[in-house]
Amino acid sequence: MNLTLKIWRQKGPKDKGKIVDYKVNDISEHMSFLEMMDVLNEQLINSGEDPVAFDHDCREGICGSCSMFINGRAHGPAEGTTTCQLHMRSFSDGDTIYIEPFRANAFPVIKDLVVDRSAFERIQQAGGYISVNTSGNTQDANAIPIPKEDADMAMDAATCIGCGACVATCKNASAMLFVGAKISQYALLPQGRVEAEKRAKNMVAQMDAEGFGNCTNTGACEVECPKGISLSNIARMNREFLTANLKK
Ligand code: SF4
Ligand code: FES
Fold it and tell me: What pTM, to 2 d.p., does this model score?
């Protein structure tokens, strides 16, 4: 495949940034999208130009770092797929592909396609943990009976990889799907009930402090989430938050 790439180039946080055109030729349909980007970067390095900065780590859909907008969609055209899992067979010879960073006030651009998603880390630090007795007398987690349905829902919520596609896709740049998933994975399990009230209040407060928008129930986040995180997690977060505030 021969392709035209229109890529957002931005030297740093204060640079205005612009779309720059590149050509890549002889791209195999079996390559991943990031391998195609590697081909472009080798081309740029060989010609003495600055390679395109983009985030990646696991390249198997679990770390959540390969965030970019491809032809106007977070992680590109395939359903339930991160950018690193997207293959070039999703495109055709002669295509023009637009590649841009995730855009949200709370995710400022660092360079090119790399954005600062440390706001998610700060939300996690505000309550995304449990207290566990590590004295040597710790109760085996398997000894605590948990209804299968709850365990399944907690596991589904825990599959959130913190990629930020929900925020980048939402017209309000809301982080509620992410925060809802993180609160739910603990709220559904007995181990998570100890700090449940504090967690709901603190994580929501941190989310607001980071400048994410509010949820207006559009549902775009659920559609574009590569892990299929359900909107029901937002409803659970709202219930947890309301209950916590009614108690005190
Ligand atoms: S909820 Fe989905 S889209 Fe949002 S951060 Fe988690 S995995 Fe990514
Ligand atoms: S590089 Fe880890 S999810 Fe894509």
Answer: 0.94
